[in-house]
Amino acid sequence: KEHIKEVQAFQATTKEQLEEFRIKYLGGKGVVKEIFAAFKSVPNEEKKAFGQAINELKNASEEKVKTLQDALESKEDVKGIFGDLTRPGAPFEIGSRHPISLVKNQILDVFSTIGFNVSEGPEIEDDWHNFTALNLPEYHPARDMQDTFFIQTNPDTLLRTHTSSVQVRYMENNTPPIRTISPGRVFRNEAISARSHCIFHQVEGLYIDKDVSFADLKQTLLYFTKEMFGKSKIRLRPSYFPFTEPSAEVDIYWGLKTETDYRITKGTGWLEIMGCGMVDPNVLKNCGINPDEYSGYAFGMGIERIAMLLYQIGDIRMFYENDVRFLEQFKSSL
Ligand code: PHE
């Protein structure tokens, strides 16, 4: 009776467990055989009941083996169709954002919190939007500042040398107040080296409204450098751009803590990160904005340069080679 209870309660999750069970009860030296051997020594009047009990145990054991076998086999069938459902999933590779995109998004985020929208324009430009409207008429010597890839001359079609061309388009199509950031790819006919490339990325900013002053520009740039680099010391050095007057280069105080700091700041601790200035009244006029009513500032920076600083990348060419070992290092960044 005890054996019957045990048999009825038995469950198996593997074929091996079931086989063990079968051998235990129905095998050559199994429980059923053992009890059957004892049958001889049972007194005659108990033989009938004893025999029934043995048969009951035998039948119960056989039935159990059969039902569990069927159950395990249908499980195997499921495995055959769907694979092992209990197996851990296969690992899959997720990609990473390119460091240029990471830094670009970071710059756009900083400026969006102070009300700048994002504008984009074509990479193939005409002479007007890349040069003439920006106070760089034909034969102006400052055109040599940016070696240009021409696609066609007369009328000139070229690969834009800066995203200031987007600002021209934006001013032509919108009325002040204007607060816009123009990110994009730009092209210059320069020798490729560790420090410069013929293709790179810029983010330029433009702010036009009534009574915009140089102080507004400086404060905005200070806010930007604090948010972007955690550095709160900047200096503006007088410079020249045809489209801004006055113009300046922006340096941040990077400090001198590591050997790399000495190398990238040439030992002064100061690092140039962008150009800026007050939009030249001629440029406003060219774009249909009245310079007597409005004024504004503009600034522009190279994304590669900023990414190189933030991630301590020593060679600009790494950005374009797309070596997975390089790209993988940015996986943890958002
Ligand atoms: N367009 C300039 C360049 O490409 C950067 C700049 C933008 C400078 C706006 C001043 C104002 O170098």
UniProtKB/TrEMBL annotation:
Residues 103-321 form the Aminoacyl-transfer RNA synthetases class-II family profile domain. The keyword Kinase does not apply. The keyword Ligase applies. Binds 2 magnesium ions per tetramer. Its cofactor is Mg(2+). It is found in: Cytoplasm. It catalyses: tRNA(Phe) + L-phenylalanine + ATP = L-phenylalanyl-tRNA(Phe) + AMP + diphosphate + H(+). Its EC number is 6.1.1.20. Keywords: Aminoacyl-tRNA synthetase, ATP-binding, Cytoplasm, Ligase, Magnesium, Metal-binding, Nucleotide-binding, Protein biosynthesis. One of its GO terms (molecular function) is phenylalanine-tRNA ligase activity. CDD domains: PheRS_alpha_core. Mg(2+) binds at E245. PANTHER family: PHENYLALANINE--TRNA LIGASE, MITOCHONDRIAL (PTHR11538:SF41), PHENYLALANYL-TRNA SYNTHETASE (PTHR11538). Belongs to the class-II aminoacyl-tRNA synthetase family. Phe-tRNA synthetase alpha subunit type 1 subfamily. Tetramer of two alpha and two beta subunits. HAMAP family: Phe_tRNA_synth_alpha1. This is Phenylalanine--tRNA ligase alpha subunit. It comes from Flavobacterium nakdongensis. The gene is pheS.
